[in-house]
């Protein structure tokens, strides 16, 4: 199901989208500047998941994380299995499938989508977490790929819950629409909410679609971000070389491209 959605999104992103009001280039540059990934002293990046789609780089700072929450179930659950193998409870959710691709004693599946309210088909991130674990203070990991629903989910999540996620891995969609001022405002709000409490530590463009070039900026439509909570960081420098040695193309048969220069410090 997710592969079909990705194919549909790719076709949509590759068409021209009407822009009602053009975002100022400086505003986009300022947002990208705040997202420039940092390299954290003593916390090297490791890869969870396979060598391709569904694999992500996260900081090697996992001890004490009680649970991983992973909305958006695909045909691959290796990332979640790697978390479970480290002793984390793993909570998965997706209305479009009946169960995860793999089984594990620590997997717990809910047949619902994430959204801005809770009903028979949807649940909020806060309600999901509250109904899943009794400990209200433990650290958590969030890995989210929900085909564009990430904007609503982040904006509706409570600040106390956001602070519980030690690591956040999220695939952002539709970023080529940052040139649309209405969409830019919406996207900026979600990024700023995360950046209140977290630093970006890794960026990887999904090569299922290609960067959109405009006004000297290259914007990949679909991008994977990894964030680490600020209190876990004592010292950092900015990453200056991409791709990371553990990065792999999401679609091996598609054209390979590296993260454009505007997304990190040089």
Structure characterization notes:
With 266 residues, this protein is of the alpha/beta class. It has one domain: Rossmann fold. Helix content is 25%, strand content 26%. The protein is built from 7 helices and 15 strands. It has helices at 2-13, 25-34, 78-85, 125-132, 150-156, 159-164, 181-195, and strands at 38-40, 45-48, 56-59, 65-71, 89-93, 107-110, 113-114, 122-123, 139-144, 165-172, 198-205, 212-214, 217-219, 223-229, 236-238. A 7-stranded mixed beta sheet has the order 6-5-4-9-10-14-11. Helix 5 crosses helix 7. The longest helix has 15 residues, at 181-195. Mean pLDDT is 92; it is low at 3-16.
Brief account:
Helices cover 25% and strands 26% of the residues. It has 266 residues and is an alpha/beta fold.
Distance between the termini: 39 Å
Q: Give average pLDDT, whole number.
A: 92
How many strands? 15
Percent of sequence in beta strands? 25-35%
The ordered string of helix (H) and strand (E) elements is: HHEEEEHEEEEHEHHEHEEEEE
- Give a short account of the largest sheet: 7 strands, mixed
Number of domains: 1
How is the CATH topology named? Rossmann fold
Shape: globular
CATH hierarchy, class: Alpha Beta
What's the CATH architecture? Answer: 3-Layer(aba) Sandwich
Label the structural class: alpha/beta
| Residue share in helix | 10-25%
* Spatial order of the strands forming the largest sheet: 6-5-4-9-10-14-11
Uncertain ranges: 3-16
